[in-house]
Amino acid sequence: MRKPLKDAPLITPEQEALLAKSGMDRQTVLANERKLAKFAVTMDSLIRIPFTKQGVGADVALSAVPFAGDIASAVITCYAFVLAKRMGVPMSKLTPAMRMAVVDMVVGFVPIVGDLTDVFIRPSQRTLGIVREHARTAYGLDSSIHVQRPFMHSALEKKQQNSSFWRNPIVAWVYLHVPDILGGLVIIAGLVLVLVLVRFVFGLF
Description:
By secondary structure, the chain is an all-alpha fold.
């Protein structure tokens, strides 16, 4: 039997009705959110600064190809809108993210400037935020860890189905943050190396 990371939260009758009307159950909503989160991470923040949401993804790589890359990125981003619609998000709520996707494409046509703004204009992440808010208000689903670290969460959930060890909150937290921890250690090691090199170089004079 599938075991979720958290106990299901209490939801109102109105939220239960909306969830039933959508044709989805709680697990389906969470699974779709995580699918969208994986897509958003891949597009916007595959390589991330440890313990932050800021990073770069496939969108930056695509934008390196003038014009064609920006158009391809915009077309691929439409997949996020398709997933959002499947989850019952009204088009009116998706409008800001769609506008951002258009801006991202148009600005991307400008050399250098477009590449720099790709780090900050992230339509897939914006769509994910809209979906997360819709799931919280419409369906009463407050859990967000599955979208913050979707790839790690998916792997952890499989481990938790087979062993109670991975259901320990501390163990689960450490596992989910392994990339951040390793990234932080790499940054610290890099800073230490720079300090050692600077001290060595200035010690020669």
